[in-house]
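Please, structure for the following, as tokens.
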Amino acid sequence: MTTPDMQRGRPGAGILRTALRRNSGAVARGTVLMGLYQAGETAFPIALGLIVEHTMQDRSLGSLGLSIAALAVIITTVSLSWRFGMRVLQKANTTEAHRWRVKVAACGLQPVARDVDLKSGEVLTIATEDADQTADIVEVVPLLISSLVAVVVAAVALGLADLRLGLLVIVGTVAILSVLSVMSRRIGSSTREQQARVARAGAKVADLITGLRPLHGFGGNHAAFLSYRKVSTEAKHQAITVARVNGVYAGTALALNAVLAAAVTLTAGWLAYGGRITIGELVMAVGLAQFIMEPLKMFSEMPKYVMMARASADRMALVLAAPPSASPGRDRPAAGGDLEVDGVHHGALHGLRFKVHAGEFVAVAAYQPRAGADLAALLGANVPPQAYEGVVRVSGREIKDLSVEALREHLLVNPYDGEIFEGSLRTNIDPSGTSGLVPEAVEASLLTDVVALHREGLDHAVRDRGANLSGGQRQRLSLARALAADSDVLVLHDPTTAVDAVTEQLIARNIAKLRKGRTTLVITSSPALLDAADRVLVLDDGAVTAEDTHRRLLATDEDYCRAVAR
């Protein structure tokens, strides 16, 4: 599997620069505080060396007390600077991650889909894990600079004792970083591939959860499990590869740091033995050699985290910079208008042409389910205008000339698999809390029995995806939401497939009554809904082949009778 084309997104470096610029104040404060922390840590062995040096020359209680006071100041500086520095950086990191999560989620929830080759599960992974790893750059840069401060202070202190010690630290640090920078590139590419595979596995899970009930229905759950297992295994193998690369990187960094520390210690011992440095300077050098391993370790690990942040930022750029799949217009349709499909070719639709007049209740009997689904997607503006031939008009205006927001307010398409959200019955029916038709919608969809079953009524809690509701209850809840919206034009796609025949008959009559005078189109094979409609359009092989009332078609069209009679 390969990751999507990186050229379509804005460079990840731009996202990282935005994160740093937006948090420049916190980064600056964190850098100063963490620099103080590292300087204090470095000053500790230097102070010990000076104390030893002066104690051997001046053995007085005053000198000892001054030395203890100096150590106390250093320890206090180290403690407070670390505490407040990490607080500033972690707050900025968390806040920045939240901003990117919201931004990516907003892109995924825009009414016009973006032209990016990612599934919803992959976008979810980008909005969570990749957003978090991208925001880490806010913390990584100050830690990188503060580690550099420690190395520079140690090199200067050792250089003042003997130039060879300072040069050894500088040359050793440059050599270590040169080796590790090469290895960090491998980590970046491996991490990018791992993130893509994990996202693909997440997308597969999302798809399986969405289709779990149908899979159980026809016994396809085992095949689906094997499909997910294959994708998950690929992600596992890539994760092992990344862990192996990280392990080699960490081991190499630790070994090189240890070699440098040992070289500094041995060189200092050799210089002390030859009388070129004092005992105090030897104590300082040995202390710094031991201490310098920690900032060197942090300094050498930072390129790895930078590459990981860059890989995540590149993936976020795929979503954030992807162009919309369609360019919506700015017009608004007239109120209470008609609906017209003129010569449309798309998917299973071949030259489809029909018109629903304002206030009319029309049913479409699609002999091929795919044609019905394509028609619903087309009317719901889920298909970019450039992806189909022909014209779809609402109130005499082409859909492509209308703004998506205005179209959604005027024309509502309720899919057969409408999502149910965690909350309550009321919030699922009227998410905005502005509908004045909630009681009527509940009654028309025959959701009254569900409301009556629970003491809380419409405030009864609903789990995510309606897990505590039956299939028929979820479908009626979705229908109630569509009816409560009271849009000028309503399109329903198979709204009663999960209810019994008696309930279906009552719902059909209720829809016709509640929507009287409002434009309504129902894509269905339900005899009850077909009979309740003013007229029926027969959709066969992607085109309208017959048009009449349900009862006349039953009496005159044998194919229609076989297709819809139950």
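The first strand starts at residue 339 and ends at 346. Residues 1-10 have pLDDT under 50 and may be disordered.
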